Fold:
Amino acid sequence: MILVLTSLYLFTNFISAFIREHHVYSILFLILTITSVINHTISNLYGTNSSIQQMDRIAVYSVAVYGAYHLYIHMSWDQWFRILIIISTFLCTILLYEYGCREYKYCFDPNPIIAQMYHGYMHMIGSIGHHLIIAL
Structure:
């Protein structure tokens, strides 16, 4: 249930991108929010479903790639501190998910409560990083 709620935090990115008229970014975040909520709802009720997980993964990668593109297009080196924070949030999400998957830690901890806690943090950290990109 916690991952469904933290997935809803991604909706704030949709709103922020929509207000700033970044229409592609806002649509990608709307899709990500929907796929993430469905993925975490279904996995809570019925276990894993690979097609839903794949759609969610595609949405995650789409947001990440477009976010990197948006950052590249709009960044200015006089905003070095913001860029450093954005890069840190990206690396943190990679650590929590990809490294955690390989080492059975963080988002993939054998204890489901710990795994959900880290996965929820990952949703929030990624959202904050993208809020900073949207605001460029």
Summary: Residues 2-134 form one domain. The CA atoms of residues 20 and 122 lie 24 Å apart. The mean pLDDT is 93. DSSP finds six helices and no strands in the chain.
